[in-house]
Amino acid sequence: MTDKNSPAPTPVILVGVDLGGPHFDADLEELGLLAETAGLAPVARITCKRKAPDAALFVGSGKADEIRFMAEQHGAVEVLFDQSLSPAQQRNLERHLGLPVNDRTLLILEIFAQRARSFEGRLQVELARLQYISTRLVRRWSHLERQRGGIGARGGPGETQIELDRRMIGESIKRTKERLEKVKRQRSTQRRQRERRDTFNISLVGYTNAGKSTLFNALVKARAYAADQLFATLDTTTRQLYLGEAGRSVSLSDTVGFIRDLPHGLIDAFQATLQEATDADLLLHVVDAANPDYPEQLNEVLRVLGEIGAADVPQLLVFNKLDAIDEAQRPLQALDTYELAGRQVPRVFLSARSGEGLPVLRQQLAALALAHLAPATDPAAGATELALPSS
Fold first, then answer.
1. In sequence order, what are the beta bridge partners of 344?
2. Which of 105, 223, 256, 362 is the most buried (most CB within 10 A)?
């Protein structure tokens, strides 16, 4: 991948293959945003259709020749695929094109490596990177001869360089997992302390760039990093949110954003961070209402929540970026319901940037917090289920 300290963005070609799936990005828009976030400069885009990936080159030799010609025409020095490549396909493409070839998985890993700030975040990125590299050692070490074993010249065959590196990476993975486990235990202790204080725990979740951090800052007056880019926030930040309508504070956590085809290694590695969502009393699911693809993004978030065991946590939908929606397309009311996984879930329309709709959200959060924290013996406490909006 490109050196993030290089003075000029690295020119790259983006490649997407339509295999007949439901989520093919014909314009490679999201891959382009990922590339720009990583400090790369897309100079050309190529798409094609196939019934199945070519076993050797993923795209076939004819399309590979077209990619090589286009790279020469545009001065590209790297090729990025929107799909995950096998180690063999990656190696064969590099030989055929004479250029470095990387895929969506490594691109996301690169962004995470650039953005992680906390000790936990860096550990999680390192674990995912090591797990990815461990399957691709053959690309870098196939030219090395077998090391001679034993003390004398007549020693046994010994280990190949790839075996040595694989063993070292395996040991690094083990150490990183152990350190992450310690962080996980510390977070668990912090959560138990919050539970003893009868705190109502809310986690912000959503597709990357939906505006979670902007909403987080608007609610708690924090200074968490927020930008109009993918994966602006990687590290979980937790603050106390005072709800005057309820006369008490709740705990609000901003978590990492999700994305289509998020590498499973990253989901596993970020389990400690995503545990905040699993253990929450309420998920504030932020959706970019101005994005025409928001239904797909919403479903992708639901899929990842299911993978981490948070599918049954109550949700309140926040359709953000109301200020970016045309006046004619705006909703008639700020609060309604939306069918989510077969259930009617409350939905609030707002703009975290302008503040429009925030009072409605605060009222909903206050009502839910009071219902959750009211003593079970209080007959006026009401149900702890999410309240449907009043007419």
1. 339
2. 256
